[in-house]
Design brief:
This protein has 463 residues and is an all-alpha fold. It has 26 helices and no strands. The chain has one domain.
Protein backbone atom coordinates (compact mmCIF):
# COMPACT_ATOMS: atom_id res chain seq x y z
CA UNK A 1 0.00 0.00 0.00
CA UNK A 2 2.76 2.46 0.97
CA UNK A 3 4.75 1.54 -2.12
CA UNK A 4 1.70 2.17 -4.31
CA UNK A 5 1.23 5.56 -2.65
CA UNK A 6 4.84 6.45 -3.42
CA UNK A 7 4.36 5.49 -7.06
CA UNK A 8 1.16 7.56 -7.28
CA UNK A 9 2.94 10.60 -5.82
CA UNK A 10 5.71 10.14 -8.35
CA UNK A 11 3.19 10.06 -11.18
CA UNK A 12 1.67 13.31 -9.89
CA UNK A 13 5.13 14.90 -9.81
CA UNK A 14 5.68 13.86 -13.40
CA UNK A 15 2.43 15.61 -14.35
CA UNK A 16 2.88 18.86 -12.44
CA UNK A 17 6.54 19.41 -11.54
CA UNK A 18 8.33 21.36 -14.29
CA UNK A 19 11.98 21.19 -15.24
CA UNK A 20 14.46 22.28 -12.56
CA UNK A 21 15.20 25.48 -14.50
CA UNK A 22 11.50 26.39 -14.63
CA UNK A 23 11.42 25.76 -10.87
CA UNK A 24 14.28 28.26 -10.44
CA UNK A 25 12.57 30.86 -12.65
CA UNK A 26 9.26 30.51 -10.80
CA UNK A 27 10.99 30.80 -7.45
CA UNK A 28 12.76 33.93 -8.67
CA UNK A 29 9.44 35.60 -9.48
CA UNK A 30 7.81 34.52 -6.20
CA UNK A 31 10.75 35.72 -4.09
CA UNK A 32 10.88 39.02 -5.96
CA UNK A 33 7.14 39.63 -5.45
CA UNK A 34 7.41 38.75 -1.74
CA UNK A 35 10.29 41.19 -1.27
CA UNK A 36 8.47 43.96 -3.13
CA UNK A 37 5.22 43.49 -1.19
CA UNK A 38 6.50 42.59 2.28
CA UNK A 39 9.59 44.80 2.67
CA UNK A 40 10.41 48.44 2.12
CA UNK A 41 12.35 47.61 -1.03
CA UNK A 42 11.10 49.10 -4.27
CA UNK A 43 10.74 47.04 -7.42
CA UNK A 44 13.99 48.52 -8.69
CA UNK A 45 15.73 47.67 -5.39
CA UNK A 46 14.51 44.10 -5.72
CA UNK A 47 15.80 43.78 -9.27
CA UNK A 48 19.09 45.38 -8.24
CA UNK A 49 19.45 42.87 -5.39
CA UNK A 50 18.68 40.04 -7.80
CA UNK A 51 21.40 41.19 -10.18
CA UNK A 52 23.98 41.63 -7.43
CA UNK A 53 23.18 38.18 -6.10
CA UNK A 54 23.66 36.60 -9.51
CA UNK A 55 27.42 36.39 -8.95
CA UNK A 56 27.44 35.18 -5.34
CA UNK A 57 27.75 31.48 -6.20
CA UNK A 58 30.35 31.65 -8.99
CA UNK A 59 33.06 30.16 -6.78
CA UNK A 60 30.64 27.60 -5.35
CA UNK A 61 29.39 26.69 -8.82
CA UNK A 62 32.94 26.15 -10.06
CA UNK A 63 33.68 24.01 -7.00
CA UNK A 64 30.60 21.89 -7.73
CA UNK A 65 31.62 21.50 -11.36
CA UNK A 66 35.13 20.39 -10.43
CA UNK A 67 33.88 17.98 -7.78
CA UNK A 68 31.65 16.38 -10.38
CA UNK A 69 34.16 15.99 -13.17
CA UNK A 70 37.13 15.02 -10.96
CA UNK A 71 35.06 12.58 -8.91
CA UNK A 72 33.52 10.99 -11.98
CA UNK A 73 36.90 10.69 -13.68
CA UNK A 74 38.05 8.55 -10.73
CA UNK A 75 34.96 6.35 -11.01
CA UNK A 76 35.68 5.50 -14.66
CA UNK A 77 39.31 4.57 -14.02
CA UNK A 78 40.34 0.92 -14.53
CA UNK A 79 41.00 0.39 -10.80
CA UNK A 80 37.57 1.72 -9.80
CA UNK A 81 35.98 -0.44 -12.50
CA UNK A 82 37.61 -3.57 -11.05
CA UNK A 83 36.51 -2.63 -7.53
CA UNK A 84 32.89 -2.17 -8.59
CA UNK A 85 32.97 -5.48 -10.45
CA UNK A 86 34.07 -7.17 -7.23
CA UNK A 87 31.37 -5.32 -5.28
CA UNK A 88 28.67 -6.71 -7.54
CA UNK A 89 29.77 -10.17 -6.49
CA UNK A 90 28.30 -9.40 -3.05
CA UNK A 91 25.38 -7.22 -4.13
CA UNK A 92 23.40 -8.92 -6.87
CA UNK A 93 19.74 -8.13 -6.20
CA UNK A 94 18.06 -4.76 -6.81
CA UNK A 95 16.40 -4.79 -3.38
CA UNK A 96 19.87 -4.93 -1.81
CA UNK A 97 21.20 -2.05 -3.90
CA UNK A 98 18.85 0.62 -2.50
CA UNK A 99 19.70 0.26 1.23
CA UNK A 100 23.38 -0.23 0.42
CA UNK A 101 23.50 3.02 -1.56
CA UNK A 102 21.55 4.94 1.10
CA UNK A 103 23.81 3.74 3.92
CA UNK A 104 26.99 4.31 1.89
CA UNK A 105 25.83 7.77 0.87
CA UNK A 106 24.99 8.70 4.45
CA UNK A 107 28.39 7.61 5.75
CA UNK A 108 30.18 9.51 2.98
CA UNK A 109 28.01 12.60 3.49
CA UNK A 110 28.92 12.65 7.18
CA UNK A 111 32.52 13.24 6.13
CA UNK A 112 31.55 15.90 3.63
CA UNK A 113 28.34 16.62 1.75
CA UNK A 114 30.37 16.97 -1.45
CA UNK A 115 31.13 13.25 -1.30
CA UNK A 116 27.58 12.68 -2.50
CA UNK A 117 29.13 12.61 -5.97
CA UNK A 118 31.02 9.44 -4.99
CA UNK A 119 27.71 7.83 -4.06
CA UNK A 120 26.30 8.90 -7.42
CA UNK A 121 29.08 7.34 -9.47
CA UNK A 122 28.95 4.14 -7.41
CA UNK A 123 25.17 3.88 -7.87
CA UNK A 124 25.44 4.42 -11.61
CA UNK A 125 28.08 1.75 -12.02
CA UNK A 126 26.03 -0.73 -10.00
CA UNK A 127 23.00 0.05 -12.17
CA UNK A 128 25.03 -0.78 -15.28
CA UNK A 129 25.80 -4.22 -13.89
CA UNK A 130 22.67 -5.27 -11.96
CA UNK A 131 19.41 -5.74 -13.83
CA UNK A 132 15.97 -5.05 -12.41
CA UNK A 133 16.77 -1.74 -10.69
CA UNK A 134 14.31 1.14 -10.85
CA UNK A 135 16.87 3.73 -11.92
CA UNK A 136 14.88 6.93 -11.13
CA UNK A 137 14.27 5.55 -7.63
CA UNK A 138 17.98 4.78 -7.28
CA UNK A 139 18.72 8.44 -8.07
CA UNK A 140 16.23 9.39 -5.35
CA UNK A 141 18.10 7.11 -2.93
CA UNK A 142 21.38 8.86 -3.70
CA UNK A 143 19.80 12.29 -3.28
CA UNK A 144 18.08 11.28 -0.04
CA UNK A 145 21.33 9.94 1.46
CA UNK A 146 22.64 13.51 1.68
CA UNK A 147 20.16 14.58 4.37
CA UNK A 148 22.50 13.42 7.14
CA UNK A 149 25.45 15.64 6.18
CA UNK A 150 24.27 18.45 8.44
CA UNK A 151 25.08 16.35 11.51
CA UNK A 152 28.55 15.41 10.23
CA UNK A 153 32.05 16.80 10.07
CA UNK A 154 31.40 19.43 7.39
CA UNK A 155 28.21 20.87 8.89
CA UNK A 156 28.40 24.59 8.10
CA UNK A 157 26.44 26.07 11.00
CA UNK A 158 28.13 24.26 13.95
CA UNK A 159 31.53 24.95 12.37
CA UNK A 160 30.63 28.63 12.02
CA UNK A 161 29.63 28.85 15.69
CA UNK A 162 33.06 27.46 16.60
CA UNK A 163 35.02 29.82 14.32
CA UNK A 164 37.00 32.60 16.01
CA UNK A 165 35.93 36.10 14.99
CA UNK A 166 32.88 34.95 13.02
CA UNK A 167 30.32 37.56 12.01
CA UNK A 168 28.02 36.66 14.92
CA UNK A 169 30.79 37.56 17.36
CA UNK A 170 31.88 40.65 15.44
CA UNK A 171 28.32 42.03 15.50
CA UNK A 172 27.89 41.28 19.22
CA UNK A 173 25.17 38.65 18.74
CA UNK A 174 27.36 36.04 20.43
CA UNK A 175 29.92 36.73 23.14
CA UNK A 176 32.28 33.99 21.97
CA UNK A 177 32.61 30.75 20.07
CA UNK A 178 30.50 27.68 20.85
CA UNK A 179 32.59 24.47 20.65
CA UNK A 180 31.31 21.71 18.39
CA UNK A 181 31.10 19.45 21.44
CA UNK A 182 27.97 21.46 22.31
CA UNK A 183 26.46 21.07 18.83
CA UNK A 184 27.82 18.15 16.80
CA UNK A 185 28.62 16.29 20.00
CA UNK A 186 25.24 16.94 21.59
CA UNK A 187 22.82 14.15 22.53
CA UNK A 188 20.35 15.66 20.05
CA UNK A 189 22.76 15.46 17.12
CA UNK A 190 24.14 12.03 17.95
CA UNK A 191 20.64 10.60 18.32
CA UNK A 192 19.61 12.28 15.05
CA UNK A 193 22.55 10.63 13.25
CA UNK A 194 21.91 7.17 14.72
CA UNK A 195 18.17 7.38 14.05
CA UNK A 196 18.71 8.40 10.41
CA UNK A 197 21.42 5.79 9.79
CA UNK A 198 19.16 3.03 11.10
CA UNK A 199 15.83 4.08 9.63
CA UNK A 200 16.97 5.60 6.32
CA UNK A 201 18.16 2.44 4.52
CA UNK A 202 15.22 0.44 5.88
CA UNK A 203 12.66 3.06 4.85
CA UNK A 204 14.02 3.41 1.31
CA UNK A 205 14.14 -0.39 0.94
CA UNK A 206 10.52 -0.61 2.12
CA UNK A 207 9.35 2.13 -0.26
CA UNK A 208 11.15 0.70 -3.31
CA UNK A 209 8.83 0.36 -6.34
CA UNK A 210 8.29 -3.10 -7.73
CA UNK A 211 8.56 -2.00 -11.36
CA UNK A 212 12.05 -2.12 -12.87
CA UNK A 213 13.35 0.76 -15.00
CA UNK A 214 16.82 -0.32 -16.09
CA UNK A 215 19.46 2.24 -16.99
CA UNK A 216 19.70 0.91 -20.55
CA UNK A 217 15.95 1.43 -21.00
CA UNK A 218 16.45 5.18 -20.54
CA UNK A 219 19.53 5.42 -22.75
CA UNK A 220 19.90 7.85 -25.63
CA UNK A 221 23.62 7.62 -26.36
CA UNK A 222 24.75 5.24 -23.62
CA UNK A 223 26.12 2.85 -26.20
CA UNK A 224 28.46 5.52 -27.50
CA UNK A 225 30.14 5.80 -24.11
CA UNK A 226 30.94 2.08 -24.20
CA UNK A 227 32.39 2.13 -27.72
CA UNK A 228 36.02 2.54 -26.60
CA UNK A 229 37.85 2.35 -23.34
CA UNK A 230 39.87 5.40 -22.30
CA UNK A 231 43.07 3.53 -23.07
CA UNK A 232 41.84 2.58 -26.56
CA UNK A 233 40.76 6.14 -27.33
CA UNK A 234 44.13 7.48 -26.16
CA UNK A 235 45.97 5.01 -28.38
CA UNK A 236 43.84 5.97 -31.40
CA UNK A 237 44.96 9.59 -31.10
CA UNK A 238 48.66 8.78 -31.67
CA UNK A 239 50.26 9.52 -35.00
CA UNK A 240 51.27 6.61 -37.25
CA UNK A 241 54.94 7.18 -36.50
CA UNK A 242 55.31 8.17 -32.88
CA UNK A 243 56.64 11.66 -32.41
CA UNK A 244 57.99 13.44 -29.33
CA UNK A 245 54.53 14.89 -28.74
CA UNK A 246 53.03 11.38 -28.59
CA UNK A 247 55.67 10.23 -26.13
CA UNK A 248 54.94 13.20 -23.88
CA UNK A 249 51.16 12.75 -24.19
CA UNK A 250 51.42 9.10 -23.19
CA UNK A 251 54.23 9.24 -20.63
CA UNK A 252 53.66 8.56 -16.94
CA UNK A 253 56.70 10.17 -15.37
CA UNK A 254 55.59 13.80 -15.80
CA UNK A 255 52.09 13.10 -14.47
CA UNK A 256 53.42 11.08 -11.53
CA UNK A 257 55.87 13.87 -10.67
CA UNK A 258 53.03 16.40 -10.46
CA UNK A 259 50.95 13.89 -8.47
CA UNK A 260 53.84 13.50 -6.02
CA UNK A 261 53.90 17.27 -5.49
CA UNK A 262 50.19 17.16 -4.79
CA UNK A 263 50.56 14.26 -2.36
CA UNK A 264 53.18 16.21 -0.40
CA UNK A 265 50.78 19.12 -0.03
CA UNK A 266 47.84 16.89 0.98
CA UNK A 267 49.93 15.26 3.73
CA UNK A 268 51.09 18.68 4.92
CA UNK A 269 47.51 20.00 4.91
CA UNK A 270 46.19 17.31 7.26
CA UNK A 271 49.28 17.41 9.51
CA UNK A 272 49.05 21.17 10.01
CA UNK A 273 45.26 21.60 9.99
CA UNK A 274 43.95 18.33 11.38
CA UNK A 275 40.91 16.74 9.76
CA UNK A 276 39.95 19.90 7.86
CA UNK A 277 37.90 18.58 4.94
CA UNK A 278 36.66 21.44 2.79
CA UNK A 279 35.59 21.64 -0.84
CA UNK A 280 38.95 22.87 -2.11
CA UNK A 281 41.03 20.13 -0.53
CA UNK A 282 38.48 17.53 -1.67
CA UNK A 283 38.75 18.71 -5.27
CA UNK A 284 42.53 18.71 -5.03
CA UNK A 285 42.56 15.15 -3.66
CA UNK A 286 40.26 14.03 -6.48
CA UNK A 287 42.55 15.63 -9.07
CA UNK A 288 45.68 13.97 -7.65
CA UNK A 289 43.90 10.60 -7.46
CA UNK A 290 42.79 11.01 -11.06
CA UNK A 291 46.35 11.74 -12.19
CA UNK A 292 47.59 8.56 -10.53
CA UNK A 293 44.74 6.30 -11.62
CA UNK A 294 44.79 7.35 -15.29
CA UNK A 295 48.59 7.35 -15.52
CA UNK A 296 49.10 9.52 -18.62
CA UNK A 297 48.07 13.07 -19.59
CA UNK A 298 46.20 11.81 -22.66
CA UNK A 299 44.11 9.29 -20.71
CA UNK A 300 43.35 11.77 -17.94
CA UNK A 301 42.31 14.39 -20.48
CA UNK A 302 39.90 11.92 -22.12
CA UNK A 303 38.49 10.92 -18.73
CA UNK A 304 37.88 14.58 -17.83
CA UNK A 305 36.23 15.19 -21.21
CA UNK A 306 33.86 12.27 -20.68
CA UNK A 307 33.16 13.47 -17.13
CA UNK A 308 32.26 16.98 -18.34
CA UNK A 309 29.57 15.99 -20.82
CA UNK A 310 26.54 16.80 -18.66
CA UNK A 311 27.36 19.77 -16.42
CA UNK A 312 25.24 22.41 -18.17
CA UNK A 313 22.65 22.42 -15.36
CA UNK A 314 25.17 23.70 -12.83
CA UNK A 315 26.74 26.21 -15.21
CA UNK A 316 23.55 28.10 -16.05
CA UNK A 317 21.19 27.36 -13.15
CA UNK A 318 23.42 28.18 -10.17
CA UNK A 319 23.45 31.92 -11.03
CA UNK A 320 19.64 32.01 -10.92
CA UNK A 321 19.59 30.49 -7.44
CA UNK A 322 22.29 32.97 -6.45
CA UNK A 323 20.02 35.74 -7.75
CA UNK A 324 17.22 34.50 -5.48
CA UNK A 325 19.71 34.53 -2.62
CA UNK A 326 20.60 38.12 -3.56
CA UNK A 327 16.95 39.18 -3.28
CA UNK A 328 16.71 37.62 0.19
CA UNK A 329 19.93 39.31 1.30
CA UNK A 330 19.67 42.76 -0.22
CA UNK A 331 15.99 43.48 0.42
CA UNK A 332 15.94 42.17 4.00
CA UNK A 333 13.29 39.59 3.09
CA UNK A 334 15.19 36.69 4.66
CA UNK A 335 15.80 38.54 7.92
CA UNK A 336 12.17 39.67 8.15
CA UNK A 337 10.86 36.18 7.50
CA UNK A 338 13.12 34.67 10.16
CA UNK A 339 12.35 37.35 12.74
CA UNK A 340 8.59 37.00 12.17
CA UNK A 341 8.67 33.23 12.64
CA UNK A 342 11.13 33.18 15.53
CA UNK A 343 9.37 35.96 17.46
CA UNK A 344 6.21 33.84 17.53
CA UNK A 345 8.03 31.20 19.57
CA UNK A 346 8.08 30.67 23.32
CA UNK A 347 10.60 29.05 25.65
CA UNK A 348 9.04 25.71 24.71
CA UNK A 349 8.23 26.16 21.02
CA UNK A 350 11.13 28.20 19.61
CA UNK A 351 12.81 25.07 18.09
CA UNK A 352 9.72 24.54 15.92
CA UNK A 353 9.90 28.03 14.47
CA UNK A 354 13.66 27.81 13.97
CA UNK A 355 13.17 24.48 12.17
CA UNK A 356 10.41 25.90 9.97
CA UNK A 357 12.46 29.02 9.21
CA UNK A 358 15.33 26.88 7.98
CA UNK A 359 12.95 24.71 5.98
CA UNK A 360 11.13 27.58 4.25
CA UNK A 361 14.10 29.84 3.52
CA UNK A 362 16.00 26.88 2.06
CA UNK A 363 13.80 27.06 -1.04
CA UNK A 364 15.23 30.50 -1.77
CA UNK A 365 18.75 29.99 -0.36
CA UNK A 366 19.68 26.33 -0.78
CA UNK A 367 22.98 26.65 1.10
CA UNK A 368 23.19 26.10 4.85
CA UNK A 369 26.00 28.59 5.36
CA UNK A 370 24.42 31.20 3.09
CA UNK A 371 21.01 30.73 4.65
CA UNK A 372 22.31 31.05 8.21
CA UNK A 373 24.12 34.25 7.26
CA UNK A 374 20.70 35.67 6.33
CA UNK A 375 18.44 34.30 9.07
CA UNK A 376 20.88 33.20 11.78
CA UNK A 377 21.28 36.59 13.49
CA UNK A 378 17.51 37.09 13.67
CA UNK A 379 16.94 33.58 15.02
CA UNK A 380 19.60 33.93 17.72
CA UNK A 381 18.42 37.42 18.66
CA UNK A 382 14.86 36.11 19.10
CA UNK A 383 16.09 33.16 21.19
CA UNK A 384 18.10 35.47 23.46
CA UNK A 385 15.02 37.63 23.94
CA UNK A 386 12.86 34.59 24.77
CA UNK A 387 15.44 33.25 27.23
CA UNK A 388 16.35 36.58 28.81
CA UNK A 389 17.47 36.13 32.42
CA UNK A 390 18.52 32.50 32.07
CA UNK A 391 22.05 31.46 33.15
CA UNK A 392 24.70 31.51 30.41
CA UNK A 393 24.94 27.70 30.07
CA UNK A 394 21.19 27.42 29.48
CA UNK A 395 21.25 30.32 27.01
CA UNK A 396 24.07 28.60 25.09
CA UNK A 397 22.00 25.42 24.94
CA UNK A 398 19.06 27.37 23.54
CA UNK A 399 21.25 28.97 20.87
CA UNK A 400 22.68 25.56 19.92
CA UNK A 401 19.23 23.95 19.77
CA UNK A 402 17.89 26.76 17.59
CA UNK A 403 20.92 26.64 15.28
CA UNK A 404 20.70 22.86 14.86
CA UNK A 405 16.96 23.18 14.25
CA UNK A 406 17.64 25.60 11.39
CA UNK A 407 20.24 23.18 9.99
CA UNK A 408 17.95 20.14 10.16
CA UNK A 409 15.03 22.03 8.58
CA UNK A 410 17.26 23.43 5.83
CA UNK A 411 18.62 20.03 4.87
CA UNK A 412 15.31 18.17 5.02
CA UNK A 413 13.57 20.41 2.48
CA UNK A 414 16.28 19.62 -0.05
CA UNK A 415 14.13 16.54 -0.66
CA UNK A 416 11.39 18.84 -1.99
CA UNK A 417 13.44 21.05 -4.27
CA UNK A 418 15.85 20.07 -7.04
CA UNK A 419 18.81 22.41 -6.44
CA UNK A 420 21.31 19.79 -5.24
CA UNK A 421 19.88 17.28 -7.67
CA UNK A 422 21.91 19.32 -10.17
CA UNK A 423 24.96 17.68 -8.61
CA UNK A 424 23.53 14.17 -8.97
CA UNK A 425 22.01 14.28 -12.46
CA UNK A 426 25.20 15.17 -14.37
CA UNK A 427 26.65 11.87 -13.16
CA UNK A 428 23.61 9.61 -13.06
CA UNK A 429 21.81 11.21 -15.98
CA UNK A 430 24.67 11.03 -18.45
CA UNK A 431 23.47 9.62 -21.76
CA UNK A 432 19.90 8.95 -20.65
CA UNK A 433 16.46 10.59 -20.61
CA UNK A 434 15.84 11.71 -17.03
CA UNK A 435 14.48 14.85 -15.36
CA UNK A 436 13.98 16.06 -11.80
CA UNK A 437 10.26 15.30 -12.01
CA UNK A 438 11.07 11.59 -12.55
CA UNK A 439 12.89 11.50 -9.21
CA UNK A 440 11.42 13.98 -6.72
CA UNK A 441 8.07 12.24 -6.20
CA UNK A 442 9.79 9.30 -4.53
CA UNK A 443 11.01 11.63 -1.78
CA UNK A 444 7.63 12.90 -0.56
CA UNK A 445 6.97 10.05 1.88
CA UNK A 446 10.53 10.12 3.33
CA UNK A 447 10.13 13.88 3.77
CA UNK A 448 6.88 13.47 5.72
CA UNK A 449 8.39 10.73 7.89
CA UNK A 450 11.48 12.71 8.84
CA UNK A 451 9.62 16.00 9.13
CA UNK A 452 7.55 14.52 11.96
CA UNK A 453 10.41 12.80 13.76
CA UNK A 454 12.89 15.67 13.32
CA UNK A 455 10.40 18.10 14.86
CA UNK A 456 9.86 15.77 17.83
CA UNK A 457 13.61 15.39 18.34
CA UNK A 458 14.46 19.10 18.24
CA UNK A 459 11.64 19.72 20.72
CA UNK A 460 12.24 17.02 23.31
CA UNK A 461 15.77 15.58 23.11
CA UNK A 462 18.37 17.15 25.41
CA UNK A 463 21.38 19.02 24.09
Amino acid sequence: MITELGEKLTEQFKKYMPDAFVFALGLTVLTGLAAWIWTDATLLDTIQGWYEGFWLLLEFGMQMTLILVTGYSIAISPLADRFINQLTGFIRKPQHVYPFIVLTGMLLSMVSWGWMVITAVLARQLALRIKGINYPYLIACVYFSGIIWVGGLSSSIPLLLNTDGNYLIETGILAGTIPTTYSLGSILNIFMIVFTLVTGPLLLKWLAPSQAVDLEDLATDLHQQKAKTIREEAASMNQTHKQLSDRLNNSSWLQYLVALMGLVYIIRHFITRGFDVNLNIMIFIFIIMGLVLHRTPMRYGIAMKRSSMNISGILFQFPFYAGIMGIMLNTGLGEKLALTMASAGTIHTYPIFAFLSGAVVNFAIPSAGGEFAVIGPSIIHAVKTIGMGLPDPEMTQMVVRASLSVAYGETLTNTLQPFYLLIILPVMGLGIRIQARDVMGYLILPFIFYFIFDLLMVLFLPI
